[in-house]
Design brief:
The chain is of the alpha+beta class. It is built from eight helices and twelve strands. It binds 2-oxoglutaric acid.
Length: 317
Amino acid sequence: MNDTDQNSPEGILPFLISNDATDDPNKLRERMRRDGYLFFRGLISAADIRRTRAEILALCAGAGWLAPGTEPNEGIAAPGIASTEPQPDYMAVYNPLLRGEAFNALAHDSGLLNVLEGLFGEAPLPHARNIARIIFPQNTLHTTPSHQDYLHIQGTEETYTAWIPLGDCPRSLGSLVVMPGSHHSGVYSVQKAHGAGGVGIDTDALPFPWAGGDFAEGDALLFNSLTIHKALPNLTPDRLRLSVDFRYQPLSHPIAPSSLEPHHQQQTWEEIYADWKSDLFKYYWRDLPLTYAGSDPRVTAVREAALSSPRTEGETT
Ligand SMILES: O=C(O)CCC(=O)C(=O)O
C-alpha cells in the first residue's frame, strides 16, 4: 500500500492499482486476501458503460430530473430535486431502470468475468440482483454509510461486489472508498443510519485507513463482502452520480435465494425481460448446479441489536 498522497486532502490513501495482476491469479488472490479489495483502471467496456448511462439518463429525463436545456449525457440535475431510494418518485424511475437491457448486460462484462475467474479459480456466478444508484448532488444526508455487504447479502462470505461508476467519477461526485484490512474481523455491529442499506458501522475507533480515488470511465472496484466501505458525499453543485453495483461468487459456493431476485422484489423477471431484444442473459442461472444458503445467525443478531439503536447522522466527509 502506498503512503497517503498529498493530493488526498481527506486523508484517504490512493487505491493500489491492480492492472498488473489481471493475468496473474496468485497475485489477485494474495492482494484480495491482504487488502479486501482490488481496483482496476479501464477494465470495463466503455461502449457498454455509455449504453447503460444513456439508458438510465433517458429515464431521468422522462421524470423531469435533468435541468432543462442541458445535454442529457452530462447528467445535470434539475434544480430543487433530490429523490432517494426507496421514495415513491425514486422507485418510479428505478423500477423501469431495473428492466434495462444494457444495465443487466453490463453485469456480464467479459473483462470483469475474466478477473473474477482468476480470483476464484473456478467459474464466477453473477448474482441476478443487479443494483444501480442515482445519487443527487448535495443530498449528503443520504450518502451511503460505512457498512459490509455481507449483512445485506449473506450466502457466502466469498461474495465480491463490483462497483462501477457510469462515467468519470471524481471523489467530489461521491465515489466509493474502502477500508483495506477491515475484512479480517468478521461481521461488525451496526446502528440505524440514513443512506443505502439503512444501517452503518461506527468506524471512528477502527485501526484501518480509508482507500479511494478518482474513477475514470471503465474503472472498477472489487471488494469482499466483509470489507467496510462507504460513499463519499456528492458535493458537486448539480451533477447526478450514476453507478452500478453487481455481485459475484464462486459457482460452487452456496447462494442466498434473494440474490437471484430482482432488487426490491417489486417486479418479476418476466416483467423485467419483457422488452429485451436478446435472450442471452435471461435466466442464465437456472441451468447451473447451484446450492442454497440459509440465513446466518450472526447477521440476525447484529440486525436485532441495530433495531434498538439510535440512528446515526449522515456522513458528510
Ligand atoms: O453506490 C453507493 O452509494 C453504494 C454502493 C455500495 O455500498 C455497494 O456497492 O455495496
